[in-house]
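Input record, target 12 of the design panel.
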């Protein structure tokens, strides 16, 4: 009987040790995530954060299709444009977007007012004056409604 009690006690102690270890691992994981996200910013340095997001909005203005050259002299296509959407408060939010290489094929023919769904890497930069700039590097895009369809749905 005494041996059974001793085994139960040891089992309880082991269980407590495991729970403590699991909790410490959770805490370590949280602090690692925080450390990766934050670092000291030196004076005059631009701060940039990256994340992957899906954006819905209308093309604002003209899509600018360019051909550029990289440092090795190789040519590549780039499409630059802005989309406008609304935030939770109903305010207009403009986001600058860029597509490179093969990704420009879907974007080249878009027009102002087209409603699109974009998926890409969002880069948020804060300049020396503290102003926040967002740019999305497009990974995929889809035209949901052409400008003509948007006008028709509003008239109905």
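The sequence produced for target 12 reads:
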């Amino acid at each position: 009987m005494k041996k059974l009690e001793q085994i139960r006690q040891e089992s309880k102690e082991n269980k407590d040790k495991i729970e403590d270890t699991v909790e410490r691992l959770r805490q370590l994981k949280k602090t690692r995530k925080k450390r990766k996200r934050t670092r000291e910013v030196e004076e005059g340095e631009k701060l940039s954060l990256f994340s992957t997001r899906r954006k819905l909005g209308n093309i604002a203005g003209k899509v600018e299709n360019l051909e550029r050259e990289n440092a090795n002299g190789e040519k590549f296509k780039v499409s630059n444009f802005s989309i406008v959407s609304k935030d939770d408060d109903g305010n207009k939010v403009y986001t600058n977007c860029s597509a490179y290489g093969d990704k420009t094929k879907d974007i080249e023919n878009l027009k102002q007012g087209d409603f699109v769904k974009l998926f890409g890497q969002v880069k948020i930069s804060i300049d020396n004056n503290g102003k926040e700039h967002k740019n999305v590097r497009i990974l995929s895009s889809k035209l949901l409604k052409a400008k003509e369809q948007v006008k028709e749905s509003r008239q109905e």
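The first strand starts at residue 47 and ends at 69.
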